[in-house]
Design goal:
Layout: E1 2-3, E2 16-20, H1 24-38, E3 49-53, H2 59-67, E4 76-81, H3 88-99, E5 105-110, H4 119-125, E6 129-133, H5 141-149, E7 155-156, H6 158-168, H7 172-185, E8 191-192, H8 194-203, H9 206-218, H10 221-233, H11 238-260, H12 265-272, H13 276-310, H14 315-327
Parallel strand pairs: 2-5, 2-6, 3-4, 4-5, 7-8
Antiparallel strand pairs: 1-6
Helix pairs in contact: 6-8, 7-9, 9-10, 9-11, 10-14, 11-13, 12-13, 13-14
């Protein structure tokens, strides 16, 4: 769940948020919702939106971005991840910068801290808003699913919720994607029954495979290997998984080519027959992966297909080698 306790007795810096907790999906979603609210129709939001990771980017890069002027928008959004990597002196510098954010600037700090007891989070909580991103407890998960389903005007029967958790697990990103896909699967109906879950998740592992594409594009290899294990446990074979992955990557490659030509999202969706529910995410994926990287991943999938057919390796070993090879692509 996402909560946002504030401190009404102290001044709140404009646009300062501190995300704590261990659920990366809720953190990513919070960032994306803020980005969309600030730049709902921006043609090139990346001119005034940037993300930094302290494991790769020195702190001064964030400061340079915050201090730079933008001719395209009076608003600016910066995201700093791995805040817990800051040294004591860097923490002091960040606090001073957070206290003097320019007007129209939003700064989101992402930490793996799980509470507000840490010294840095405590200091930042006095000038900004702390947002906790925790996976719901087991007893709260059905309520989270039911609330999330309302986003697509869906109503899940209780038995359907129980079966969905049993089939998909407790990973919020996987549950969210399952609901998205189910909304299309049962269209135009809005009520999801246990039979719908059984039919959909029992027929194929496509939901898990699409999740695997997300993770490969994000280069999150540990989670990609876990997703692959889930697909294999469901009984899917390499000759089923590889074509689904390849088809999705081919569509992303074509979308990236259209983006380079300046095609708007609506035209991309029409040409590639992407459902409106998924269009924003699909275009975002295409921007992230790009044409060249998509081609490289497709090449690795082809090698994997040949490996399965010619080498005699079992599905798990071949697919794991493929996922790790994709992780090494530029």
């Amino acid at each position: 769940m996402v909560k946002g306790p504030t401190h009404p007795s102290v001044r709140t810096a404009e646009g300062l948020y501190v995300l704590i907790g261990r659920d990366d999906f809720l953190k990513r979603e919070f960032v994306e919702n803020v980005r969309k609210s600030l730049f709902p129709s921006a043609q090139n939001p990346f001119a005034h939106y940037a993300e930094f990771d302290l494991k790769q980017d020195p702190l001064y890069k964030l400061f340079d971005f915050l201090d730079s002027s933008s001719f395209l928008s009076e608003k600016k959004l910066a995201v700093l991840r791995q805040v817990e990597e800051l040294s004591g002196e860097e923490s002091k510098k960040l606090i001073r910068k957070a206290e003097t954010l320019p007007a129209g600037t939003t700064l989101i700090l992402v930490s793996s801290e799980t509470s507000t007891r840490g010294a840095l989070v405590q200091s930042l909580s006095r000038i900004g808003r702390v947002v906790t991103c925790h996976t719901p407890f087991d007893k709260d998960l059905p309520s989270w699913i039911a609330t999330r389903a309302k986003k697509w005007e869906l109503l899940l029967e209780r038995e359907a919720i129980v079966l969905l958790v049993e089939k998909v697990g407790k990973d919020l990103a996987a549950l969210n994607m399952s609901l998205e896909t189910l909304s299309v699967y049962i269209y135009p109906r809005k009520r999801i029954t246990a039979k719908d879950i059984e039919d959909f998740l029992g027929k194929s592992a496509e939901t898990d495979v699409f999740r695997l594409v997300d993770l490969l594009v994000e280069k999150n290899m540990p989670a990609a290997l876990r997703a692959l294990e889930s697909v294999l446990k469901e009984g899917a074979r390499a000759y089923e998984i590889i074509p689904v992955l390849a088809n999705q990557l081919e569509r992303l490659k074509r979308a990236a080519e259209l983006i380079e030509k300046g095609s708007p999202p609506a035209e991309i969706g029409a040409q590639l027959k992407v459902h409106s529910f998924f269009l924003d995410k699909f275009v975002r994926q295409a921007r992230l992966v790009g044409r060249d990287k998509a081609s490289k991943i497709l090449s690795e999938l082809l090698k994997c297909d040949e490996l399965v057919k010619k080498s005699g390796l079992n599905d798990r070993v071949a697919l794991e080698k493929c996922v790790l090879a994709i992780g090494m692509t530029a």
